[in-house]
Structures are given as structure tokens and as C-alpha cells.
Automatic annotation (TrEMBL):
Predominant location: nucleus
Source species of the chain: Rostratula benghalensis (greater painted-snipe)
Keywords: Nucleus, Repeat, Transcription, Transcription regulation, WD repeat
Cited InterPro entries: LisH, TFIID_NTD2, TFIID_NTD2_sf, WD40/YVTN_repeat-like_dom_sf, WD40_PAC1, WD40_repeat_CS, WD40_repeat_dom_sf, WD40_rpt
GO cellular component, one term: transcription factor TFIID complex
Compositionally skewed regions (Basic and acidic residues) per UniProt: 325-336
Name by which UniProt lists this protein: Transcription initiation factor TFIID subunit 5
Known partners and oligomeric status: Homodimer. Component of the TFIID basal transcription factor complex, composed of TATA-box-binding protein TBP, and a number of TBP-associated factors (TAFs), including TAF1, TAF2, TAF3, TAF4, TAF5, TAF6, TAF7, TAF8, TAF9, TAF10, TAF11, TAF12 and TAF13. The TFIID complex structure can be divided into 3 modules TFIID-A, TFIID-B, and TFIID-C. TAF5 forms the TFIID-A module together with TAF3 and TBP, and in TFIID-B with TAF8. Component of the TFTC-HAT complex, at least composed of TAF5L, TAF6L, TADA3L, SUPT3H/SPT3, TAF2, TAF4, TAF5, GCN5L2/GCN5, TAF10 and TRRAP.
GO MF annotation terms: RNA polymerase II general transcription initiation factor activity
Single Gene Ontology BP annotation: transcription initiation at RNA polymerase II promoter
Function in brief: The TFIID basal transcription factor complex plays a major role in the initiation of RNA polymerase II (Pol II)-dependent transcription. TFIID recognizes and binds promoters with or without a TATA box via its subunit TBP, a TATA-box-binding protein, and promotes assembly of the pre-initiation complex (PIC). The TFIID complex consists of TBP and TBP-associated factors (TAFs), including TAF1, TAF2, TAF3, TAF4, TAF5, TAF6, TAF7, TAF8, TAF9, TAF10, TAF11, TAF12 and TAF13. The TFIID complex structure can be divided into 3 modules TFIID-A, TFIID-B, and TFIID-C.
Domain TFIID subunit TAF5 NTD2 residues, every copy: 127-255
Amino acid sequence: DRQTLVAVLQFLRRSNLRESEEILRREARLLGDDLRGSAAAVASSSPGVASVAAVPPGKGGLRRGLRGRCPGREIAPSWRDPWALKAPCASPSLGGGLGHKGWLGGAVVVEDQPDVSAVLSAYNQQGDPTLYEEYYSGLKHFIECSLDCHRAELSQLFYPLFVHMYLELVYNQHESEAKSFFERFHGDQECYYQDDLRVLSSLTKKEHMKGNETMLDFRTSKFVLRISRDSYQLLKRHLQEKQNNQIWNIVQEHLYIDIFDGMPRSKQQIDAMVGSLAGEAKREANKAKVFFGLLKEPEFDVPLDDEDEEGENEEGKPKKKKPKKDSVGSKNKKQDPNAPPQNRIPLPELKDSDKLDKVMNMKEAARRVRLGPECLPSICFYTFLNAYQGLTAVDITDDSSMIVGGFADSTVRVWSVTPKKLRSVKTAADLSLIDKESDDVLERIMDEKTASELKILYGHSGPVYGTSFSPDRNYLLSCSEDGTVRLWSLQTFTCLVGYKGHNYPVWDTQFSPYGYYFVSGGHDRVARLWATDHYQPLRIFAGHLADVTCTRFHPNSNYIATGSADRTVRLWDVLNGNCVRIFTGHKGPIHSLAFSPNGRFLATGATDGRVLLWDIGHGLMVGELKGHTDTIYALRFSRDGEILASGSMDNTVRLWDAVKAFEDLETDDFTTATGHINLPENSQDLLLGTYMTKSTPVVHLHFTRRNLLLAAGAYSSQ
């Protein structure tokens, strides 16, 4: 802080260390007479350079404000101070009225949509339009001539600077300069920004900018770059020497530079992490504690079947197994240290039917095949033939007895895939005649006359993009382009509720693994958490910069993962609505998510044909699986987590060795602090098999309780 600095300068003067004193004063921008009036403010000599208040140790990071300009925006420190070695503070902007979505102290503060004119007016301060190409090519020349270790890091500046300089020219109506600037430099940008550049090239007049969402996103969210301190100092020195204020202003106004200490990252390490709409995630965004462990299973007695006992006797084994089987859940008596408290969020009580189902599950699990590189699962493919209605969504019940398809003709179709047909409950008049005390009352209430293997549910008024069965198989969710999520009864095959909250198409919905709660995500860029007995959402998760394309519950139901067209994946805490993880690295919209059964890892798939693997606890990317050549719409871990299956629009199902992918992870403190991830060069040694269909894109995957892999898709005749 200031007083410390003054004391150090006085000490240097007393010790006759004039040269050191001069250097420090220059770095800190302190003029000679400021020493006398030590209460005077720290003066900045170069225009638009930050005044920095150092925070005492333990108070966390730096709080920064840009003097005389946009108040309260975070910018990179302009001199080294004793405590600036910490990661820059990632607090939301303090008072900057640019429509930031900030998370303050657990409460969600979503400011109103940014006022368009306020957002754009930041482009008013401008330099000489004819010099923009010169500024940019000067910086380009400097970066390309810098040392290899810095070049990769500083090259990240090209794209955000290019966009902002172009938009600034367009906004100030220098259309011909903007056009020539675009044509000269757009070819230098990384290939994964092509789609964004296509949108940008259509913005050629000031009027076009007013209603353009992409434009506003870019303007209102600071583009995050992660750069080592050495590279940053190099850049700053260059811009100050060249008096290149135009670029320096953009860097301070529109970029957030997350500075770390240590070796600069390699081109390969940077490429793995960048590519999203707003750059990388700030490291602060992935620091919060996440309870990724599993909840303890409730214990209850399991009646032993006669056949089980006989089976044991036949084999001539002693009946050692019996006491073990008496209470379900005895195997995980010990609480997982990473699990959330059992009552952290209220979960529904287990009904008798749930307990029966758990018993069935345990029995099936005992007969489960242990998968691995030597023992791959059989795959059963359900092909929807003649699906001229256009198959848009599929789900399969946990016990693999029913399959549902959502279609573009707005119908939801449910099939039984076992010999047992689907039946509705009898009418009220018939039900009154039934003896409620009889043992087979649940059988008697079903109406045999309604038995069929297919039921069609009508109600939506647009294509159905997502479907999800409840864990107890009594309910079914569907979401549609009509902006609603519908809850259907699988007892009566009628619609019980229509949940209206999204104003635009809803792309995905999913039940919690415990039932009762469900999540939906849509074109309005937010995900919503609902409970089946509430008309209104319980939580609204806002923060994505584009459509929320897929949603998934964590196995412990305390967290929700959302994938978005902004090319990021976020993890949200159900308890307080906070965003606790932001994962960047995909180069296209994300369309599939899968949590590993132990809750520690997340797999994500996107239009870029890559599957990325994430360590949730450390907030790090730990793997990249390359092989698919088209969008990945389906991801699923086997029941024990040994194998990850991925299904794609390239008509293949691929199986990956999950055990090998997650072993010997580098999650030491250094990796976590700097994000220096080292992915194996080749993911082919993790690929266990590739299975082609004739001409059927894979839209859903499901492992049965015994680890048979079911896949589904609609045959396409092209």
C-alpha cells in the first residue's frame, strides 16, 4: 500500500541508493514531491493506466479501479506490489453498469439486460481510423517476433482485439476502413472462431449492432485471457513504448487478463483450453469447494429369495453371503468424505415401491458383467425406422423396460421393450369395485383392454427436444419448442402439468436421480430447477452467454451441469444457485454431458467431435478423446464407471477406457493453480472399439443394470 511504498523510498534515499529509488519511483509512478505529502493519491503518468490499491495479505487478491474511466472494472496491475503475486481478484465488477451477471455472496444478482446505447457508447473514444490497421499489424509484428515461449500466450490477444477494433470502426461509421481491416486480418484468426467471424462480417453498419446478441455478449462480458506475468510485462512495455494507447485502452476496457506466476503455457496447452465465446474461465471461478461424493444409501432389510439360497447350496458353498445381503447399503456404511451433508438439500422419502426397486437393482447388480479392455459390453441398437416425424429426443428407463421418443411432429411416443405391454389404470367407476385389501391390487387396477406396446402422448405444439423418465417410472418429462415442459403420468398416459417459465424453445430437461426435482434449459440462456409440485421454478441459473443446450444432474443431486452454445460447461449448486465451475475448451456448442458413477468426473461432447474429461474437485481438464468426426449427442459411463461410451452423428458408437483415462492424474497444486494441463498426445490408446451403424446417427446411449449397452437413433436414408 501507499505508506509502505513511501517508507521504502525514504529508506532507499537515506541509504544513498539513488538508482534503486529512481527505478522504484518510476515503476510506482511517484513524483518526488509526493514523498512529502504521503497522503496524496498515487498519480498515473501514462493515460488510462490503473491505480492499484494493494490489499493486505489474507484479504485476497487485488481490487482494482480504472481511474477517470469506467469505474470499478478489473484491469491488470500496472506495477508489482508485494502481494500482487496472488491470482487477480475475480470479483464481479464493482459498480460498472455494463449488465454483468455477478454472483455476490451467494445471492444471484442478475442486472437488467444491458442498455444497448450504454454498451455501445464505450466505442466512442477512438483513435485515428486510418491507423487501426497500422496499430494491429504493429502489434502482430511484435508478437510474431517475440520469443517462442511468449508468442503462444500473446497470440491469444489477436482475436479479441480484432473483434473490438472492427466493432469500434463500424460503430464510429468508418465503414470502408472497417471492411478493409476485416479483409486484411480475419484470415489470421484461429479456425475455431470461424462461425463467430461469419456473424461479425455481417455487421457492417452502426444500425446492425443495435439488436445483435452476439455483439452485445462480446461487449458486456470481458474476454478472459490467462497469461504469465513475464509475457504480460513484455506486452505492457511494448504498448507503452510505442504510445499505442488505442490498443492499450481496448486491453483495459474489454479484456480481463488473468495473470499467473510461473512458466508461460505452450501452444498446445493454450489450444486445449480456449475457444469459448468469452475466452477462458478466470481461475477464481473454479476455486469453490464442490461436494462431489455420493450420498449414503438408506439402509433397509432385503428379503432373501428362496432361489438365492438354493443357488448357494447347489454350488456347495457355505452360506456366508447371507448376513451381507440383509441390509442394503451396508457396503457404503462409511460416509464419503467428499459427499455433501445428507440433509443439504431436501430429498423425497423412499416409498415401498422404491425400496422394492432398489432390491431388484441389487440383485441385477450381483449379476452385472465387470467391463474392461478385455471384456467389452455387447451393444443392442434400437433403430427407429420410417421415423418420418423426425426423431428429436430419446430416453430409456433405468430398468430398461421402456423407451420414449420425442418427435418433430410434437408427439411423444412411449414403447415397452419387454413382453409386458403398457396399460392404463381403469376408470374411476371400475376402480370403486376393486377389493383394496387384496394382494394383487396393483395388478387389478390396470385395464387389460388398454394394453399395447406403444402409447402416443399429444399435447405439445412444437418439436419435442428433450425427454426424461422419473426414476420410479411413474412419470415422464418432455420439453418442446413451444416453451413448455410437460409432466406425463405413465399410469394414465395423460398430461398432468405444463410448466411455463421459458419464453423460448426448451432444448433439454432431466429428472434428478432421486425424482421430484428436474432441470430444464433453453434458448433464453438460463437453466431452471423445478419441483414436480411447484408451478414456478425453484432456482434460475443465469450466466451462459448463449442457449443452454443440455442439462445433467450430478449423481448426488446437489449439483447440475449445463452445456451451452457459448462453448462452455457450467456446474451449478442447487442449494444456493451459485455457479461453482466453468469449463472451457470445446470449440463448438455442447450437446452431451455425463457424470461418472462415483461423481468425481464429468465427460462432455460437442459439435467439434471431441469428448473432454474434467476433474470436478480440482476444476481441471484431465483428458481429451479424439476420434469422432461429427457432433457427439450421447455420452454414458458404464454402471461401474470402467467404460465411457460415446455416440455421434457420424453413425458410430465408440468405447473408451475410463479407468486408464483417469489414472495417474496430475492434480498437484501447481497444475491446479496455473492450469498447466498436460494431455496425452494420443487418445487412440484409450479407444477400445468403434462400432458403425449402416446409416443411423446415435442420439442416445444407456447401460442396463447388468452393463449391456443400449443405443438408439433414427435411420436416415441419405
